[in-house]
Specification:
heterotrimer, A mainly alpha, B mainly alpha, C alpha/beta, B: mainly alpha, MetI-like fold, about 80% helix, C: alpha/beta, Rossmann fold, six-stranded mixed β-sheet, four-stranded antiparallel β-sheet
Chain lengths: ~220, ~230, ~240
């Protein structure tokens, strides 16, 4: 193998890559927030809904959890125009990721709701707390503590998942790496620097979420 | 959209196309299955490495740690590109399937290693203490005490990871591995409508993933209640 | 010449010092009991001796050989000669009673399986478990599990046995069956360290009793002296409270 690594040419593109990383963060954040909203409704539907509502929610979750996000977005981007729904690649990716996240986040939130134990509720009741006080002082802290670690984990997986947007030409971190690669042909340098960006992004996320979880919600979380 | 699907369907579901799709489906399955089996072996090895305590193994522990953190925190697509270009530049003649498989192995090693480590740690400290005071080596402790108790904790999440990767290997279509998603792209390029093609691909993924997911749930429930032994 | 010498031993969990400065010599065949309020460092002393908690300072000498707890080889030698029985038994949950007892002699010491099994069955019979060879720990009562743990420790033929509050996790009616097993060992001349709250038992079997408080041995002497005529105020306080029960 006669190949010398030359990072010089690629380092010129660092600000360009950083811009892409910023877009990756935005996509992850928006899809996560959208997914949380869907997940909250989904979890409520699965817990309190009637048979039909529960069935529809279950079908939604089962479908999205058992098919690849990439093909879901292919479908949204390439097939929906046949039905008259024309979306930009960015919109298609965002909608696909949000719907996908919604399925996983429904399951996570539902498990969190279910973990509130009857004992704790009864203990709170015997202490003479009102419903509002029970929600405020017993249920919410408990749910936050239980939910925070898996939600953080999901967020970090989603940050990595945003790289898929590159396939649709969205110029986030991986998309911009493709562009630089096409221009410079320094493939190994480009993609290793891109990997370092992702490692940094997720490390910062792990650490800050871990600290927040430990000190705000007293959740047991590792920092790395 | 529906009219077009119905009119194209007879041309789409030909013997040749169905065989093509089934073969692609097999490739998807194998990519994840073989990757996870190999990843389990090497991930287990890394988890054991990280359990060592002596100073002599410190470099090995650090290498294991760095390897795991790198591949847990790099998107599969980027790993895939990296492996692809490294082999291209090295001018090594291997199939695209092998390139994708190697990438899966890297990621699976990192994630499964963390699952295995979590399984080791789930066995109560008293068991580790007892083994240590009986002069067992790390290897003996794992073999006779920890693994027999931890495998029930380890297996379900490893299986979940395998199912997760059945879907994630869709990205391998990007470098031209003929798996399910790539097959979809080929048929789409032949002129079949995206709705029909990708709809079918989604159904095939579902047919592969859903039974395995149900099996995983069944297995987890089966393993859960009896605490030990 | 003492079998075990402990000189200025100090130990800590993270920053919290739990053993300040322990000095103690133990002769072969002696039974030394450690008593004192919880948190005084009794169990910690045993954990340090067996190498589960590395000491911060001080020396431990076994038959005039210095023990370096950071050195795997000497730690191995030490654990070959000292065994411990834990408060929570710590039996291997995935193994039968017999396997629990035979695993270390066969796999660690490489002795022949038939011989070890024979010996293990004898040991288990001695502690009254002849009918439980193939039971799993979670099928046994606490007292039975604790007697398995004692048999497991003895199967390694240790010279010194450490007993860490072996009866405190047991229901009162099960305590005596375990104490009987220990009495048997005492009669055979095994060197023992006993951490226990069973004062009657301590008084009966011990050669010496050490009263510990705040990580120090405050007073040490024959059971008669420590229980009936302690010279130090703190010991008097503690013994007074205990005996009033």
């Amino acid at each position: 193998m006669n190949y010398t690594l030359q990072f010089g040419q690629v380092t010129e593109f660092l600000p360009y890559l950083a811009g892409g990383a910023w877009l990756s963060l935005q996509i992850a954040f928006l899809a996560f927030c959208g997914g949380m909203v869907i997940g909250a409704f989904g979890a409520m539907a699965k817990t309190f809904g009637g048979r039909v509502v529960r069935g529809i929610t279950a079908a939604y979750i089962t479908f999205f959890m058992n098919t690849p996000q990439l093909v879901q977005i292919f479908f949204i981007y390439f097939a929906l125009p046949d039905a008259g729904i024309l979306l930009s690649s960015y919109e298609a990716v965002l909608i696909g990721m949000t719907l996908n996240a919604g399925a996983y986040l429904t399951e996570i939130q539902r498990a969190g709701f279910q973990s509130v134990h009857r004992n704790e509720m009864e203990a709170a009741e015997t202490l003479g707390m009102s419903l509002l006080q029970r929600v405020r002082y017993v249920i919410m802290p408990h749910i936050a503590k239980v939910l925070f670690p898996p939600l953080s984990n999901q967020y970090i997986l989603m940050t990595l998942g945003t790289s898929m947007a590159a396939i649709f030409g969205v110029e986030e971190l991986t998309g911009r790496a493709f562009n630089i690669n096409a221009e410079t042909f320094r493939s190994i340098e480009v993609f290793s620097i891109t990997a370092v960006f992702y490692i940094a992004l997720t490390l910062v996320a792990s650490m800050s979420l871990g600290l927040a979880g430990r000190y705000l919600f007293r959740a047991k979380m590792r920092l790395i | 959209m529906l009219e077009r699907i119905f009119s194209e369907a007879p041309d789409f579901f030909t013997y040749y196309n169905i065989i093509f799709l089934l073969e692609a489906m097999l490739a998807t399955f194998l990519l994840s299955a073989v990757g996870c089996v190999i990843g389990f072996g090497s991930g287990f090895f890394l988890a054991v490495t990280r359990k060592t305590t002596s100073l002599a193994y410190l470099p090995a522990r650090m290498v294991a740690f760095v390897f795991i953190e790198i591949f847990r925190r790099t998107p599969f697509l980027v790993t895939l590109m990296m492996v692809f270009f490294i082999f291209q530049i090295a001018n090594v003649n291997i199939s695209l399937f092998t390139v994708a498989l190697i990438s899966v192995c890297f990621i699976a090693t990192a994630f499964i290693s963390e699952i295995v480590r979590g399984g080791f740690d789930s066995v109560h400290q008293t068991q580790w203490d007892a083994a240590a005071t009986l002069n067992m080596t790390l290897f003996q402790t794992l073999r006779y005490v920890i693994v027999p108790q931890a495998w029930k904790i380890i297996l379900p999440p490893v299986f979940s990871f395998f199912i997760l990767f059945i879907k994630d290997t869709a990205l391998a279509s990007q470098i031209g591995v003929v798996e399910l998603t790539y097959a979809g792209k080929v048929l789409n390029n032949k002129g079949f409508s995206a709705a029909l093609v990708f709809g079918s691909i989604l159904v095939l993924y579902f047919a592969l993933s859903y039974p395995l997911a149900r099996f995983g749930v069944w297995m987890e429930e089966k393993l859960a209640p009896a605490r030990n032994r | 010449m003492p079998q075990l010498e402990i000189v200025d031993l100090k130990a800590a969990y993270e920053k919290l010092v739990v053993l300040e400065k322990i000095n103690l010599n133990v002769e072969k065949g002696e039974i030394v009991s450690l008593i004192g309020p919880s948190g005084s460092g009794k169990s910690t002393l045993l954990r340090v001796l067996i190498g589960l908690l590395p000491p911060v300072a001080g020396r431990v000498r076994l038959d005039e050989n210095d023990i370096d707890y950071a050195n795997k080889a000497t730690l191995r030698m030490l654990r070959d000669r000292i065994a411990i029985v834990f408060q929570q038994y710590n039996l291997f949950q995935n193994m039968t009673v017999l396997q629990n007892v035979t695993i270390a002699p066969t796999k660690v010491k490489g002795r022949p399986v038939a011989e070890v099994t024979e010996e293990a069955k004898e040991l288990l019979s001695k502690v009254g478990l002849a009918d439980k060879f193939n039971a799993y720990p979670d099928e046994l009562s606490g007292g039975q599990q604790q007697r398995v743990a004692i048999a497991r420790a003895l199967a390694l033929r240790p010279e010194i046995l450490l007993l860490d509050e072996v009866t405190s996790a047991l229901d009162p009616e099960l305590v005596n069956e375990v104490l009987d097993s220990i009495r048997l060992l005492a009669a055979e001349g095994m060197t023992m360290f006993i951490v226990s709250h069973e004062m009657g038992f301590v008084r009966e079997v011990s050669s010496r009793v050490a009263f510990m408080s705040d990580g120090l041995i405050v007073e040490i002497g024959s059971p008669k002296v420590v229980f009936d005529a302690p010279t130090i105020e703190r010991t008097k306080d503690f013994v007074g409270k205990i005996l009033r029960h």
